[in-house]
Amino acid sequence: MNSTIHSSEDDLVFLDEPDSDETAATSRPAQTWRIMIIDDDPDVHSATTFALGSLEIQHRALSFLHAYSAAEARDILKNETDIAIILLDVVMEQEDAGLQLVSHIRKTLNLTDVRIILRTGQPGYAPEIDAIRDYDINDYKTKSELTRTKLYTAVTSAIRSYEQICAISASRRGLEMIIHASTELMALQGLQNFAAGVLVQIAGLLGLNTEGFVCARQVPVELQDDSDDLYIIATTNMYLGSLNKPLEQLSSHATGDIVKRSLEARQSIFEAESTALYFNNVAQKDFTLYLNTGLHLNEMDKRLLGVFCGNVSVGLDNVMLTSRLHNYAFYDPLTGLANRLKLLQTLNETLLTSLKNHSSLSLIDIDHFAETNDALGHQFGDQLLSSVAQRLVANFGEHCQLARVGSDTFALLGDETLVCPDKILALFNSPFDVDQQDVQLSATIGLIKLDDYDSDGSEALKDTNIALKRAKMNRRGGYEYFTRNMGVEIRERVLLMHALRAAFEQKKLFLVFQPQIDMRDGRVLGAEALLRWKTDEGKFIPPDQFIPIAEYSGLIVDIGEWVLRTACLELVHLRSLGYTNFQMAINVSQAQFSHPLFMQSLNKALADTQVPPKYVELEITESMAMKDPELLIKTLHQIKQLGMSISIDDFGTGFSSLSHLQKLDVDKLKIDRAFVNEIQKNPNEGSIAKMIVQLGKNLGLSIIAEGVESEMQANTLLSYDCHIAQGYLYSKPLTRDDLHAWLASR
Known about the structure:
Shape: elongated
Strand content: 15-25%
């Protein structure tokens, strides 16, 4: 039965609807606009649902919720969040119940998207201007003006507004989720962790419980391979069996097909049953995420997903850059082994735990690798090192830490029963396959036991290196364990090196001069300038102690330049005293001679001191003369062009090639004191000195003997036709003042 609603406060007339229809209207079909009616008059509920119930707005029907008081509305709204419009009566159980409910909806429940239309039959209780100004409402209508058409218009306008606000809010929430997801991803280290994180975040972003995997056109970083194959680098549980395997091994060809098509097209593909999301990156390493769910996305969702993929791509670039930097920082690019820094990290960790008990560290140095590298080329040398690394990994990689810590030096850290000389040296018994050739190698080993070692990793590595150097000094192809005595010796050398540098900088080094004599008539021909060091405590440090340290540290270049200049200045001074035929012999070290600026410093010393070059003689050692004959010949030629003479010092102690000796533009040979001493011990054993004199004469060279201390030695040398000598028989090395006095007394 139909009836009408009519009151003095409400001119809007709607027909009542059957209860069954109202019940149907309050049910919630899919994809409807939900409208909540809050009014204490049941007839208003009936009239409103009757007026709007059969309408569609934006191709969607309407469904209704009903509350008959503000209190009832509060209870319902606690659990309802997707209401589009609230049609709210102002006056209900209290005069301002509706307005108080507005404040509760906005401020307490924080429902900012829902549109609120106030309806009142008593406008005097809530004037329109005040209500709109003071409360967050979207429309205000008196029931007397709200005809069916106007109600439809107001609701349609509010729904459009609600739809736009929802889109904006969804975009905002989506962006917030993207920012959160990106932040979470950036905290992940390593490509696999990052890829796994992308799977987690994409599922959260889309609100899906889906399975999938990440596929990249590269293998996992730790495999150290630049293959161009497609590998699965991260998975959910469903695909866990495919982790770190090629895509080709997937049982589903359809799955592999969509991934390949995405990579080839360099774009995402959305299909009914599955999705492939493509991520571009600066490194051009293809990276695609597969989901076993089809995504039915609207334009906004696609845009948000595009933003997410863009952020992931930036993160991917960073992760790949970080991975490369990590590899460069901790791994050797040639062999794939850990490098020195990674070894130190592992070594420090080992020394802090019980793992150091019964552990050893070994350094393995390939013998004569530099010569092989120079003779056969760097490419062959690299292949050789890779072959050695592969054999070390095959024999020790499962139980020991391996590293390449130098050009041709490998490190091995592990249990002392494995890291021992016999097992390591046995690897070099059989030849190595290098470029389809069998190459026989040997190695020298330094080791240290870590059981009672108290220092850190860098000290352990340094001490192992000391043991290696001792092994190389003693016998190539052998080994040495580090002992505390070695450490004391090397530390004393380091202290001496620092003291030498300080002495040189503080001008504590000085020259002495040992006269050179013509034994036939006693004439002084010149002197050899010799370097001396006297400490502040008055102790003389022997040259055979500090000269090798100066050479090892590189300080010899600066010291040698100072010696050259100082000796030239002294020669100029002696000439001013009238010794115009006096010749100064000056030693030149290997490091000084091979320095690229040697000739420049030599020219500058001559120019600055104005010394006549013909009275300057440079002494080089025999071993130095044989080290790099081509460089030597070239440099000697330049020296001779300046007018200087050249002497080979300590002749007979090295292993000279006579063919090389003939090519050298030298003037004099100096017989080493060891052969002169043999004359003193047994005159018949002086044959080596005699041979050197004869050789020099045959080559047209002058001969001088050093270390002559007795008349018998002098007479024997004269009988060999060696006329020039220096030694304590004639004079010890003299300071410049003593030299002047000694010359004056002659």
